[in-house]
Design brief:
The protein folds into 2 domains: about 5-50, Helicase, Ruva Protein, domain 3 (Orthogonal Bundle), CATH 1.10.8; about 60-140, 2-Layer Sandwich (Tetrahydropterin Synthase, Chain A). The chain has helices at about 5-15, 20-30, 35-50, 90-105, 110-115, 130-140, and strands at about 60-65, 75-80. Strands 1-2 form a two-stranded antiparallel ribbon. The relative contact order is 0.16. It is α+β, with helices and mostly antiparallel strands.
């Protein structure tokens, strides 16, 4: 069994933004293997997303994206909701919202499920927008729709 040091926990936390104790538990469970610990965190944070899904998302932001000039111009307005107004000021949440608006403008997905399936990575979460959303739910601790 590998000894888990504070610097190992800090390094994993810096890479994933997961809570410190979750990082320590993941490293302990993975016997000090960073790749395994990251995967365990993705799974655990994803499970938190499932638990948060039933909570009401009454706050949120509207983001916009315009691409091109002239007759080829396309744009999108996208509303993304969360539970509290504090999350609406979170940089990771805002980056995901802006990226989602850009994905809508450039890809014209048929529905929310198609939008979630589009490729996007952020804060070591990915490879799809839905994976990033689930990761941020686990990281921030609030439901997002």
């Amino acid at each position: 069994m590998a000894a888990i040091t504070a610097s190992m926990v800090a390094e994993l936390r810096a890479k994933t933004d997961a809570p410190m104790m979750e990082c320590k538990k993941a490293l302990t469970e993975a016997d000090g293997n960073f790749e395994k610990a990251e995967e365990l965190l993705r799974i655990k944070l994803g499970n938190k997303a499932g638990k948060a899904a039933s909570r009401i998302t009454a706050e949120g932001v509207v983001t916009s994206f315009i691409d091109g000039k002239g007759p080829e111009t396309v744009g999108a307005l996208l509303e993304t909701n969360c539970e509290t107004d504090f999350v609406t000021k979170n940089d990771s949440f805002l980056a995901m919202c802006q990226a989602a608006a850009e994905l809508v403008a450039r890809n014209n997905p048929a529905d929310v499920a198609a939008l979630g399936a589009l490729p996007y990575s952020q804060d070591s979460f990915g490879p799809t927008l839905e994976d990033v959303r689930r990761g941020l739910i686990g990281k921030i601790g609030e439901n997002m729709t």
